Amino acid sequence: MDGTRPPHQPRVHLIKLAVGVRDFAHLAAIQQARAAATPPLRHLTRNFPKRTEELLAGGSIYWVIGGLISARQLLAGVERAAEADGTPCTALVLNPALVQVAPRPMRAFQGWRYLAPQDAPPDLGADGGDAAMPEEMRRQLAALGLL
Predict the structure, then answer these.
(1) What is the reported pLDDT for 1?
(2) How far apart are CA 105 and CA 38, in angstroms?
(3) Residue 126: pLDDT above 80?
(4) Could you give the CA distance from residue 59 to residue 39 in angstroms, rounded to a whole number?
(5) What is the 3-state secondary structure (H, E, C) of the chain?
(6) Which of 31, 40, 41, 113 sits at a 20 to 30 Å CA gap from 97?
(7) Is the pLDDT confidence value at 8 over 80?
């Protein structure tokens, strides 16, 4: 398995804003640098998910970039961790494979949320769609409600 597709239908996913990220390529560059500097690739967050077992049964984290759900990554683990100043936090261990998904509008929210599998957008191209379309064009069409 290449790490981009879960082995079976997951029970639940997470969704999170990619704060300060401009587009898919920017998120990929940030994560590549983080993974190289301090492997494994992790994202730190304040709260520990209560549904960890369900998340690790093939769940992904979906990234909201510029008001659109735009990407996902398989969750490889959830660990208790600490910030640099010692503040307790949670480390979401991520598979480094970043997958573009069909863009879907999403309002801003704090922290992360659970996302039911039936509410998750499909991987880009999974529906025979617009994988070759430039990202900026996809974003504009999605913002207009045309994708």
Answers:
(1) 42
(2) 32
(3) no
(4) 20
(5) CCCCCCCCCCCCEEEEECCCCCCHHHHHHHHHHHHHHCCCCEEEECCCCCCHHHHCCCCEEEEEECCEEEEEEEEEEEEEEECCCCCEEEEEEECCCCEEEEEEECCCCCCEEEECHHHCCCECCCCCCCCCCCHHHHHHHHHCCCC
(6) 113
(7) no
pLDDT in tens, 60-96: 999 999 999 999 999 999 999 999 999 999 999 999 9
pTM: 0.81
What was the pLDDT predicted at 145?
A: 66
Q: Residue 13 phi/psi, 5° resolution? A: -120, 175
**C-beta of residue 56 within 8 angstroms of C-beta of residue 8:** no
Q: Is the pLDDT of residue 115 over 50?
A: yes
Amino acid at 122: P
Give the position of tokens 């940030």. Answer: 30
- Secondary structure (H, E, C), 46-87: CCCCCCHHHHCCCCEEEEEECCEEEEEEEEEEEEEEECCCCC
Peptide bond connecting 117 to the previous residue in cis, omega within 30 degrees of 0: no
Q: Which two tokens stand for residue 138?
A: 């996809």
